Amino acid sequence: MLLCFAATTAAAVTPPPDPDPQVPSLDAILRGHPGLAPLLEDAEALRLQVLLGTLEEGSGGPRLVQQGFRADAEYTYPASTIKLCAAVAALQELERLRRKTGLAVDADTPLVFHPLFDDEVLERHDPDNRSGQRITVRQEIRELFLVSDNTAFNRLYELVGPAALNRSMHRAGLPSTHIVHRLSEARSPEEQLRLPRIDLAGDGFVHTLPRRVDPPPPTAKAVPGLRVGRGYLTHGASGPRRVDGPMDFATKNRMSLRDLQRALAMVVRPDLGALGGPGFGLTDDQGALLLEPMYQLPRESKNPVYDPTEYTDQWVKFLLPGLERVLPKSRLRIYNKIGRAYGFSTENAYVVDTETGRGFFLAATIYTNRDGILNDDRYEYEQVADPFFADLGEAVARALWPDRFLQTDAPR
């Protein structure tokens, strides 16, 4: 199955033999769409950032050319977009363990997570895994991409550890990476450094990673905009309590939009130049393992199986509704990872027209929190963020694929 998929993927991501010599400016693309232009006037309040990556042929081969609108102008919370980093680092960690131990450790080796905190229990089963209900790196990666499962990320975070996870990204040439906590788990900074005992229970062997505590992370480089909002809610045993004043994101995960896009390119197009570093050095099999769930829609997955009425096609494909205004879904392949939390919505995608092989990278983030209060679950995701991403996908696809219109001829 993977061999067949790898062949299909290679065909889909091959750079076009004759790329367009002129790429429209991103500013012109944004201002030319009636749904996007009004948002640009309020871009600072919305923390609106867009980064377009196009492919340019040169004597040394294809290279990524990035142009941005307010890209990395201020801090934006990356939310689940950093799950891509954990997936990559987990595969690297398995390879390290295989070399160190000489054991047949791989992505299908069952994992057993022992309780670390008082509210945890032993975890050895994944009920969504139709292959023996085992917890494996392969299955966690699939769930992480297909529906952005937080438990899957947290397990890979604990397998690798934040120190090694960050080293992996920095070594690849992504210096802004600062991943220091699990997702959807209210733990102290010290607790985020504590990692559980994990047993790798393979065929004829059990290798144990003991409990450990990672060293505190180096202080991250200062960036503007780390204090967000005008108040936030805390949730305790007595119920929610409002705290007046901005929420400080200095101790939370961060990664620049440029590095997010480069990280994606290192996985889906490792042949590209101008990626800012040596890349991840993944094998073809590792790349295929990452790519399949990255582009699949939840309803297309055979393991796990998801209810399409709950997990719609656009569940983790923010650009899809707008791209469908330009090309039919059957011609689109979107390799991506989205993130959404605290009012921030981020998309990091590589979009390919499978019929022509033409593709582009598009990363964007927007902050929608009109009342300025965080943790109140009153964010304008559906009213503002979702239409923004749909219009953005449409605008860029129409600009870069002007001869490929199969749907309506005018922007909506």
Overview of the structural elements:
The chain is α+β, with helices and mostly antiparallel strands. The chain has helices at residues 2-13, 26-31, 37-40, 83-101, 137-146, 150-160, 162-172, 189-192, 257-268, 284-295, 320-323, 381-400; strands spanning 49-58, 61-69, 111-113, 194-195, 198-202, 205-209, 212-213, 227-228, 231-236, 239-244, 247-248, 332-341, 344-353, 359-367, 373-374. It has twelve helices and 15 strands. The strands form five sheets. The protein has a five-stranded antiparallel beta sheet, sandwiched between helices. The longest helix is centred in the C-terminal third of the chain and has 20 residues, at 381-400. Mean pLDDT is 92; it is low at 1-20 and 406-412.
Shape: globular
What class do helices, strands and sheet pairing give?
A: alpha+beta
Instruction: Output the number of helix runs.
Output: 12
Proportion of residues in helical segments: 25-40%
In percent, how much strand structure appears in the residues?
A: 15-25%
What is the rounded Rg?
21 Å
Low-confidence stretches: 1-20, 406-412
Task: Give me the side-by-side strand order of the main sheet.
Answer: 2-1-14-13-12
Distance from N terminus to C terminus (CA atoms, Å) equals: 40 Å
Strand count, sense and barrel status of the largest sheet are:
5 strands, antiparallel
Give the number of DSSP strands.
15
Q: Residue-averaged pLDDT, rounded? A: 92
Order of helices and strands: HHHEEHEHHHHEEEEEEEEHHHEEEEH
